[in-house]
Amino acid sequence: MEQKKLADIGIFGGSGFYKLFESKYEEKVIETPYGAPSAPVVIGTMAGKQVAFMPRHGEKHQYPPHKINYRANLWAMKSIGVSRIISPCAAGSLQTHVKPGEFVVCDQFVDRTSGRIDTFYDGPITTHVSAADTYCPELRPLAYEAGLKASIKMHSTGTVVVIQGPRFSTKAESKWFTAAGWEVINMSQYPEAFLARELEMCVVNVSLITDYDSGLAGNVDPVSHSEVIKVFGENLTKLQALLINLIGSIPEKRTKCQCAETLKHSRI
């Protein structure tokens, strides 16, 4: 892949997060071998650094999570030189101690999706990429500290279970996930985070908790998309403050992780 170094840091916007820059930005329409990305890549300056932004659901939220062209989105970011991906998302809580309005920096995922294209490597070179620690060990503590600096209630670790969508969980499914000890539920972290790893990019997730999932307790109201968007919007200013702090703290070179060497031991 020919890289034109236009930005080192890329951000995917989730539900309710469709725009990052108010002015002085460049918009690039990028073609990929995997089809069209969700939207043009918008490049601007944030915390003194060049940053690329794309709303993963499209500019008008026209792509539900199971229809997002994740490979095209990640390839587009890689093609302009991005090596760090920040992947915020709206998410539900599966545990009572993780409350709406709080943020979780997830360190693990559980894939409960089906039928999504989730690899760049279909041959002829057989490639087995480890997903043991998909989320970057250098970026995660930086994201946690960035949230604390913005006076946000943060959780430094958490497991996100990724469901297929577009439907929400039944109460039985939600109780199952809670009993397993997982903290967060979402529809878009897989395969997005793993595809970033396959392209040797660092990736960090920040889950903005918008609701308690339906099976967490017997008396919580069923989750609705309108309520998710409402709570996310109410906390968007907090997320933007976290992003500014995080981007400002990311070092120029990757020295505390092996994300750039992911493929080194992945091929036969």
Query: Which word captures the global form?
Result: globular
Number of domains: 1
Strand content: 15-25%
Through-space gap between termini: 21 Å
Overall mean pLDDT: 92
Low-confidence stretches: none
* Proper CATH architecture: 3-Layer(aba) Sandwich
The CATH topology label is: Rossmann fold
Radius of gyration: 17 Å
Instruction: Describe the largest sheet.
Output: 11 strands, mixed
Classify the secondary structure makeup into a structural class: alpha/beta
| Pattern of helices and strands | EEEEHEEEHEEHEHEHH
Number of strands: 11
Total DSSP helices: 6
CATH C-level name: Alpha Beta
Could you estimate the helical fraction of the residues in percent?
10-25%
CATH superfamily: Nucleoside phosphorylase domain
Q: Tags for this entry?
A:
268 residues; Rossmann fold; 6 helices; 22% strand
Describe this structure in words.
This protein has 268 residues and is an alpha/beta fold. It has a single domain, classed as Nucleoside phosphorylase domain (Rossmann fold, 3-Layer(aba) Sandwich). Helix content is 24%, strand content 22%. It has helices spanning 70-79, 139-149, 171-179, 189-198, 225-234, 236-249, and strands at residues 9-13, 26-28, 41-46, 49-55, 84-93, 103-104, 108-112, 154-155, 159-163, 184-186, 202-212. A hairpin with a 2-residue loop joins β3 (41-46) and β4. α2 (139-149) crosses α6 (236-249). The chain is globular. The two termini are 21 Å apart. 44% of the residues are buried.
